[in-house]
Hints:
Layout: H1 2-8, E1 28-35, E2 40-46, E3 52-59, H2 63-74, H3 79-86, E4 88-90, E5 94-98, E6 106-114, E7 124-129, E8 141-151, E9 155-164, E10 170-177, H4 178-181, H5 187-196, E11 211-216, E12 222-230, E13 240-245, E14 261-264, E15 268-272, E16 279-284, E17 289-294, E18 301-304, E19 312-317, E20 320-325
Antiparallel strand pairs: 1-2, 2-5, 3-4, 3-6, 6-7, 8-9, 9-11, 10-12, 12-13, 14-15, 15-18, 16-17, 16-19, 19-20
Amino acid sequence: MMKRFLLTCMVLATGLCLNAQLVGNPSVDYTVDEVGTDFITITFTPNADAAGYSICLFEAGTAEQQFAMFGPWMGFQTMGDMVRGWGITKTESYQHTWTNQNPGTDYEIYVQCWDINNVDAEMIIIPVTTQQMGGQGVAEMTIEIGEFGGDAENGFYQWVTYIPNENVSLHRDIIIELEAYESEEWGEENLINYLKQDNPWDPYWDQYGIDQAQWSAKPNTWYMAFSIAKNANDEWGPLAGVEFKTPGSTGVNEFAAGKAQITIGADAVTATGNKAGSEVKIYDMNGRMVASACADANGNAIISTSSLNRGVYVVVNGKSAQKFMK
């Protein structure tokens, strides 16, 4: 009985039916301003009949699945309810950038607007595909071992930065105790096969661009950090590996380069707390180094970003790294 009621009326959260009379013709115009490998920028402009609107991004083909899964227990009786509940709500023109999206992926932006009586107009769905990352050459990774930290009460951790070259489309990263890696259970061949297997349930399995990962680790232990990548043709490159030993619990942070800090400004990146003469680098999300500077005698380095194109970048400062958007 409830199912029949939903199909015939579908009550909104406000108590109004979808078949209520719309006042005017509320709608939202849009312009897809820019699409990169991991970001989407769109400008939305409501017309005079639209009292408000909400926007929400979904990977293509998943909105209906999420509505079926979450709608009943979250009280969403229509797709419009879900877009209102999860999305960004505005009443005037607005430009929004979605970041941290996957390259070469189809997305749909749902736009739900309504009239002065809060009655929903027809849903607008905007299809957008992010740019493909990588090239057709050999996909290779570089691994940098960063800071070890933590304590016995809260656990210890190890930072590892994985840097792709310009051909990498996606990569998969891991650390493993050296003793386990050298056992019969693992070894290079088994590890490569493991990393090449798809794992859609792990949100961190597929990595795009530079990956600064914080792993749980034990003090005074030998580890191997590994990474393998494939190019735009889905061809896997060689396995990259680095062997390292974590310090003892009393030597926490001995991998850190002083108290290195990064400050992101409008037109420059400032790095402090470095060793004199050490190099600070900025990479784009394809792993290309696009700018660099050496720390002065006081350990400071300033890199101008005014000439960089719009996009997402990573600044690597000694043993730390930080993403920023230009």
